[in-house]
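Lab channel / #folding
Pinned by the channel admin:
"Please post every new chain as: sequence first, then the structure tokens as a reply. Keep commentary short and put observations after the output so the thread stays searchable."

First post following the new format, from NK:
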Amino acid sequence: MAEKRIKVLHLIKSLGRGGAEKLIPETALVHDQEKFEFHCLYFYHQEQNIVDELIDADIQVHLIPSSNLGLFFQVKKVREFIIQHQFDLIHAHLPWAGILARFVGKNLQIPIVYTEHNTWDRYNKVSYWGNRLTFKQQDVAIAVSNEVALSMQLNAPWDPYRKGGRLKIKVVQNGVNTTAFTRLEQNSDQVTALKKKLSIPKNAPVIGKVAVFRSQKRLWLWVELALRIIKQKPETHFLLVGDGEWRGRIEKQIQESGFGAHFHLVGVQKEVIPYLSCMDIYLSTSEFEGLPIAMLEAMSCKIPVVATRAGGIGEVIQHGIQGFLSEVDQWEELEEYCVKLCNDLELHQNLGNEARQRVIQNFSMIRMVSELEDIYRRVLK
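Reply from TO:
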């Protein structure tokens, strides 16, 4: 008789194109689906979402429409849904889903795994206190970086490592599918056609980033750095993949600069590898991060990283080996690092090769999924 598959319910507020959301289908593709069956329940529907990607990864997707505060009125409905489908465990992502999972799990004998993707001081007061006051009512809290784990320890009103308690904290750093994320050849038809479509000269240096356009990314500083780089390297072009609430302000900043022809904002893209393959440098000016998936994907495509030492970025990038780092408030230093890489092709190639090796050795999706499966089996015991 075939062994019964473990039924895992991913619980998340929405399915936009953020890093936390994208990890659900990407991990499912690597999981042993002969042993695990995955479902995903979400509550806030957006036009640009990744539902198709979840379905393609053999995840069964369910929607219970709700707002943030409305989640507190969905506890009974979600509890009945879990009982109906006989799930073996809940894996919640981000504070709102985490709070809901803890209320739902109060009267159910079902393990709760929660993944924290950011440091606690970056959440608004409602998310922060809701998360903090319910935090111990779960079995394992997964931190995507050591800095995120430390923020849990510092903010919890009790010692989360206390022996005998229900809560355990485990660091599982984000991973990337290094087989899928491989750089396309620069003379390939796909890259050549894309550069022509974007009006990027064939041999022009391209500095880029993939991101949700939200305030934590500080894209106004990203554009400011780009304008400074243009003064030193006028042939350079800049590529932004993504969208969000800051797009209008960023477009206005670019338009007013008079250098609009150097910037290419291509919106949300389901297939990002061709765009990453056009980039020579991955530039990040973030104020805070968990451990950005898009950066790991860029590294897997042999792109050196120039970034602020925000969150888990400093745990991945070794300064001068896979890229260059500055402190968060010293972002101006990133300009010279970018210019240095544009001018020194041998250094650029070495750092790009090291970036991919770093991801293969320490941040692969295979390693991440293996650690997740181990956690699932442990909590089920």
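NK: The domain at 189-362 is CATH 3.40.50.2000 (Rossmann fold).
TO: also worth noting, The chain has a mean pLDDT of 92.
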